[in-house]
Amino acid sequence: MKPIYFDNNATTMVDPEVVQAMLPFFTEQFGNPSSMHSFGDKVSSALKKARQQIQTLLGAEHDSEIIFTSCGTESDASAIMSALKSQPDRKEIITTVVEHSAILNLCKQLEKEGYKVHYLPVDKKGRLDLKEYEKLLTDQVAIVSIMWANNETGTLFPIQEMADMASDREILFHTDAVQVVGKMPIDLKNSSIDFLSLSGHKLHAPKGVGVLYVRRGVRFRPFLLGGHQERGRRAGTENTASIVALGKAAELALNHLDFENQKVKAMRDRLEKEILSQVPHAFVTGDPENRLPNTLNIAFEYIEGEGLLLLLNKQGIAASSGSACTSGSLEPSHVMRAMQIPFTAAHGTIRFSLSRYNTMEEVERVIQAVPPIVSQLRKLSPYWKDNAPVQNFVPTYA
Amino acid sequence: MWEYSEKVKEHFFSPRNAGVLEEANGIGDVGSISCGDALRLMLKINPETEMIEEAKFQTFGCGSAIASSSALTEMVIGKPVSSALQITNQDIADYLDGLPPEKMHCSVMGREALHAAIANFRGEKWKDDHEEGELICKCFGIDAHLIEETVRANNLTSIEQVTNYTKAGGGCSTCHDGIEEILIKILAEQGKTLEKATSKKKKKLTNLQRMKRIEQVIASVRPQMLMDHGDIELVEIGEKEIFVNMSGACSDCQMVGTTLSGLQQRLIDDLGEFIRVLPASQLNKVMGGRA
Known about the structure:
Chain A is an alpha/beta fold. Helix content of chain A is 39%, strand content 15%. Chain B is an alpha+beta fold.
């Protein structure tokens, strides 16, 4: 049976149309866009087109606001480092406890270098407290960096409002939007967002290409120095084939926004409803009211996620988990801990993330597969007996 | 993806002896849900011959934890208690054609459960390691005795290996000095020295330096609290904990727990030791007559 890929927040399949669009740029159109001859010229025009395709998807005012990078992580780091370098008198950063490690590990390093980082906490549903946020917005803050949607739970933060609040106080605002671009409509020209990061491989383009949007008029200091590429804002020969691919993927994503928010959402909702109705002691993590249309994160209490993933994988179903054991660290994911999900459930969280390539038939197969696997693992668990949790199992060493 | 051996996968997908053994006369419950593993091992031991006749397990944990439990039951069934006690965690891993290094703690848990179950059969209280040795890793509750035993049994030579085998040191990492001391001691017995790269030691602070550092950290968080119309005051510094008074808006703020744990992490990072931050109201409870 054909394997089912429900791990699209990790990465996505490159759309076949995207592959077709990029292939000529390895062979016939291999020129360096900076070159003063027809080989370079053609590629240069292709990059311009790709830039406009991204501009359209993001609703940016100018195509020159789009800078191509190598990945989301590079875009994130470029935005934050630029804000710090261009405002040397400001030594504070505001972010959240649930950011991707691309932001968190950079912030940890910056703390060692003397910057003060404010990590906004989240409540049990993964939501931010905007009053807490407002208090932190002082003239000491160089940049606010908040993810638009959380990769594990799909929870959406009120980015427009938060960007407005920062903008009112003349503070730069960056959003890591890698999970949102292509899944939700974005209109940057009518927002206060100064920087936005996206990553190609999350929207059916290849790995190794990303974008940093920088609003016109925002002071920018390049992260990579060297040649004059990207108007001197990102040195290094352009990854032409992948940039063309990303442009095509952006065009396709725009055409599929309704599909994403209706069909994909309907599949996700059915998966959620059926699993919750068939599996006791399971709950959705994050904020169900404000959530990406494709993401479902469920905590199955009293079992451990890795076992579930292995058994799903055996049936050809790919998903991911926030459990400690799957990541190689010894504690469950920082997102689950931040939401104070009890340990008995945090280890058993499974994320299903869908895309436009999934079908309702696949959803039905997963609905068939999950409940028996959960009960099989619960039968093995000392915290479970006769279809109910055991209260009195207290191992030594706890 | 983890690289599990075929044997590990096989034991995970078709675990042997899973479930409850109603007539068990030796039960060992070990592990901790907070670090993701827990195991109940149930043995039926013939009281006259001390032969392990049956064994079953229940495990909360990842694939390799379930496979290790399954392997363990197969290894002990039909063995006298005396020889079962000789089984090491390495034996369990070998039985499974090896475990990834990060998963060796699963085999350690198996061995612990076996010892706990046999102690239970003999009517002894299993000497859990908290009582036997000094608690080294506070995050995962791992003591010196277990670390020593594991280092010896597996010829471990680095902190990273100790973390892989026991989980000790995998959390806040303030116990790395303690783990290192154990390693240095055992390696010295074997005529070896710890590699230079891992043996940089932090200089211990004097009491006065320590006090000043704590005051500085508190001073650095105060402006934020003042801005929120609250305040914090240092009341007492103990060996393993410090006590603070929260006042103004902070005293009844719902974020007080987060604030204290944030402060605690800053202190841990700054002092390089494990320290607990508690509200002054707990001063008498914790420090007893001393305060």
